[in-house]
Design goal:
Keywords: Heme, Iron, Metal-binding, Monooxygenase, Oxidoreductase. With 516 residues, this protein is an alpha+beta fold. The protein has a single domain, classed as Cytochrome P450 (Cytochrome p450). 54% of the residues lie in helices and 7% in strands. The chain is built from 25 helices and 9 strands. It has a 5-stranded mixed beta sheet, sandwiched between helices. The chain has a two-stranded antiparallel ribbon with strand order 5-6. The longest helix is centred in the middle third of the chain and has 21 residues. The protein is globular, with a radius of gyration of 25 Å. Bound molecules: protoporphyrin IX containing FE.
Length: 516
């Protein structure tokens, strides 16, 4: 006999409800009454939900905790990819949320755009006074703020930092040369994170944080990102929100620096204060933002500026570290891709390009195979492994043969979309840079969303591309990288961002490779 999951859940709920009744006789009457009310409430919610019948883990239809547990276990990304393979384009992951991988989903949810869902409010860091475009769900206010900050993020303004980030990369190359000379295994993952963090320091504040030079995680700032990322990824969910706004996201908690968000706040504010006192600052992102405050005093104030700085510091280091790591890790597992990247680089050099000590962005842009490898790394191992949730507005929304009423949360998950065989073909889960040269790739680009898509997509993507192109091009040109133990898989947890670790490498200079 075959029972549908729908039937099993219904039957279980009713049996649980009936069992709870005799408990009245055994347990203290108030405890038992609470139990009856709770189970009854769950049954009612589930019975009446307009999302009934959408497949997914049965328990997720009752409570958000199924999702929260997977977020905290750090496996939400792979679990959701598997669930979509099993159930198709719609998977219910919470009483009010459906994860969507339907071909029309990106257009109808992210590009439409629907308003950001309540989950983003949990990114109000370090406390409720600091609202950035990242955490705002009021789309009118969000775009007002974003307009004031957008000048700092444009491609041309991001490029003004190129010379400064060259200086960061040069110091980083000295460290790599020392590891090449000694031949010892080292944590390349950490050193990629150091360079990512210091580059964002130059971009925002005309000053590096000093991780590269010191070769260590000063003050545990980077290590602190891991609990922060886990913490940030669940604070906005319904069972946690009251805790966030009433207790955790309280200015007192910020002042006492009791939580990881206080730590990132302190790092960002210290950098901001130093920047204000630094007479040698360039026309960096902060200069554009200060101009935004000057020109729009009725829209943004100093606290909004601080909130914006915090979200840029938080958003701009883990993500770039992850992307750089994914590039090296996957290239290592596809030796043919390394060889082709070397060949492309050697050909470019023979034509007089890529000659600067740090490869220029302009030269790196003329390396199509390298770019394909970067895009493929971003596709297969997206730095943001969290769904991007939006809320259905007035009138509801139809996607495919499904109708979602007002208030439904629909999320587009970069990992689910990027790993979907329906959208990317049978090899969706394989690292294959050649896919970016296939004839039908233009029709698939719309499903490439490491930066999100639409009005809430990543404003730092121009700067991030500059960083990724320059670091990877220089690495490909000058070094041979091997994992110390090629059979060892890296480790990671998919929270708000995913930052791999524990895959020590050895490095050699290409120009000395034949001598060793
Ligand atoms: C490989 C690097 C990066 C990746 C993959 C990435 C990815 C993303 C994604 C997926 C979002 C969320 C979009 C959404 O909610 O729909 C986002 C937002 C954001 N990112 Fe990035 N990011 C990267 C680098 C950066 C950098 C370098 C900065 C700043 C210097 C930055 C600053 C931000 C900010 C401020 C937001 C919030 C935007 C908003 O809601 O208006 N990101 N990023």
């Amino acid at each position: 006999m075959h029972f549908s999951p729908d039937f099993v859940v219904r039957a279980t709920a009713r049996v649980a409800f009936l069992l709870a009744l005799p408990a009245l006789a055994v347990l203290h009457q108030w405890v038992a009454l609470l139990l009856v009310v709770a189970v009854g409430w769950c049954v009612k919610e589930w019975d009446e939900s307009p999302l009934r019948g959408i497949p997914g883990p049965p328990v997720a239809a009752w409570t958000r905790f199924w999702h929260i547990i997977h977020v905290l276990r750090g496996d939400q990304n792979t679990i959701l990819v598997d669930l979509h393979e099993k159930h198709g384009p719609f998977v219910r992951i919470a009483p009010d949320e459906v994860c969507v991988s339907h071909p029309d989903g990106v257009k109808k949810i992210l590009l439409a755009p629907l308003a950001k869902a309540y989950w983003y409010e949990g990114l109000t860091m370090p406390d409720y006074r600091f609202r950035s475009p990242m955490s705002l769900t009021d789309m009118k206010r969000k775009s007002e703020l974003a307009r004031c900050w957008s000048a700092g993020y444009t491609l041309s303004n991001s490029l003004q930092s190129e010379g400064a980030i060259d200086e960061v990369i040069k110091v980083w190359l000295e460290k790599l040369d020392q590891f090449a000379e000694s031949g010892e295994a080292f944590d390349l993952d950490k050193h990629l994170h150091f360079v990512a963090f210091d580059m964002v320091g130059e971009f925002l504040f005309s000053k590096q944080f000093g991780f590269v030079k010191e070769g260590r995680d000063i003050g545990g700032i980077i290590g602190n990102n891991i609990p922060l990322s886990a913490f940030a990824s669940i604070l906005g969910f319904k069972p946690m929100r009251w805790l966030h706004f009433a207790v955790l996201g309280n200015p007192v908690v910020t002042t006492l620096k009791l939580l990881p968000a206080g730590h990132v706040f302190e790092t960002a504010m210290k950098a901001l204060d130093n920047r204000m006192d630094n007479p040698d600052s360039r026309y960096d992102a902060l200069a554009h933002w200060m101009q935004g405050v000057e020109k729009n005093p009725s829209i943004v104030n100093k606290r909004d500026l601080q909130a914006n700085v915090i979200s840029a510091v938080a958003g701009g280091n883990d993500t770039v570290s992850c992307a750089l790591q994914a590039f090296v890790y996957y290239m290592n597992r596809h030796a043919d891709a390394w060889f082709r990247a070397w060949e492309e680089m050697d050909a470019a050099m023979s034509k007089g390009r890529c000659q600067d000590q740090v490869v220029s962005f302009a030269d790196a842009q003329q390396l199509p195979f390298l770019q394909a490898c970067i895009k493929e790394a971003l596709r297969i191992f997206s730095p943001v492994p969290m769904g991007l949730p939006r809320e259905v507005g007035e009138g509801g929304l139809s996607i495919g043969d499904r109708f979602f009423p007002k208030g439904t949360v629909l999320s587009i998950h970069p990992w689910v979309i990027h790993h979907s065989k329906q959208l990317w073909g049978d090899d969706a889960q394989v690292f294959n840079p050649d896919r970016w040269f296939q004839r039908d790739i233009a029709s698939r680009e719309k499903y490439f969303l490491p930066w999100g898509q639409g009005s809430a997509s990543c404003p730092g993507q121009h700067f991030a591309r500059i960083e990724l192109y320059k670091v990877t091009a220089t690495l490909v040109r000058d070094y041979i990288v091997h994992q110390a133990d090629p059979a060892q898989g890296w480790r990671w947890k998919a929270y708000f961002t995913v930052v791999p670790h524990s895959w020590p490498c050895r490095i050699r200079r290409r120009d000395q490779a034949s001598a060793k």
